């Protein structure tokens, strides 16, 4: 005997309403999180821009002619003035640049920036570079030695200046070798950059549920 056809059980109106409400809630939470994330990023970039501008202004007011990237604050210590080609021994010209730059830079970062701004700076990177002449491995070694030569000079040869210990505690030497060099030999590629390493956002602490 044929059984009568039965319609499949459908969600009740109450169940459907519950799912819609939950969906709306999740959409709302995502919108809140997205808005919060954008606000945090905008605020962080504004803080970084302010740090860069403050450092640039301090250098300008001190009469220092250091090539500085207006977006990142990277300071270019040209190695053709600081080092002989293929060498990592600081020349007198390079030492003179550091003698002028480091006290002003340390004072700006550790005495003139606010505590909140200082917290944004995790490291101060001393980044060595070479031109494209020579092998990759030898250039990487040379660039690291140049960065270390800058740190060693600040630590052991420069007279003491305010905030010197704090400056050194933040500094890290790294080598980029010929990675950013021109295809052919270019003296401008032989340089050392002093650059900021800024604090990254911990997104696990930014969830709306933790506010």
Task: Tell me what you see in this structure.
There is one protein chain. With 211 residues, the chain is of the alpha+beta class. It has a five-stranded mixed sheet with strand order 1-2-5-3-4. Helix content is 51%, strand content 13%. Helix 1 crosses helix 3. The protein has a single domain (37-201), classed as 2-Layer Sandwich (60s Ribosomal Protein L30, Chain: A). The chain has six helices and five strands; from the N terminus they run H-E-E-H-H-H-E-H-H-E-E. It holds the Pfam family OmpA.
Order of helices and strands: HEEHHHEHHEE
Distance between the termini: 64 Å
| Structural class by SSE content | alpha+beta
Rounded average pLDDT: 81
Biggest sheet layout: 5 strands, mixed
CATH architecture: 2-Layer Sandwich
Number of domains: 1
Order of adjacent strands in the largest pleated sheet = 1-2-5-3-4
Note the beta-strand portion. 5-15%
Rg (CA only) = 27 Å
Sequence stretches where pLDDT stays below 50 over 5 or more residues: 207-211
What general outline do the C-alpha atoms trace? elongated
Give the helix level as a range of percent.
40-55%
């Amino acid at each position: 005997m044929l059984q009568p056809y039965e319609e499949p059980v459908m969600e009740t109106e109450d169940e459907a309403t519950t799912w819609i409400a939950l969906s709306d809630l999740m959409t709302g939470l995502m919108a809140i999180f997205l808005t919060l994330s954008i606000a945090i990023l905008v605020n962080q970039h504004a803080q970084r821009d302010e740090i860069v501008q403050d450092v640039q202004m301090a250098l300008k007011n001190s009469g220092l002619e250091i090539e500085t990237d207006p977006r990142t604050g990277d300071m270019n210590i040209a190695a053709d003035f600081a080092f002989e080609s293929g060498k990592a021994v600081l020349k007198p010209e390079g030492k003179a640049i550091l003698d002028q730059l480091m006290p002003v830079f340390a004072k700006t970062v550790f005495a003139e920036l606010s505590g909140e701004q200082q917290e944004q700076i995790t490291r101060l990177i001393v980044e060595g570079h070479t031109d494209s002449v020579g092998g990759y491995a030898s250039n990487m070694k040379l660039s690291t030695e140049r960065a270390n030569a800058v740190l060693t000079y600040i630590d052991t040869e420069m007279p003491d200046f305010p905030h010197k210990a704090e400056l050194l505690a933040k500094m890290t030497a790294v080598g980029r070798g010929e990675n950013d060099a021109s295809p052919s030999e270019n003296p401008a590629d032989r340089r050392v950059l002093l650059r900021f390493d800024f604090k990254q956002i911990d997104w696990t602490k930014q969830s709306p549920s933790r506010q």
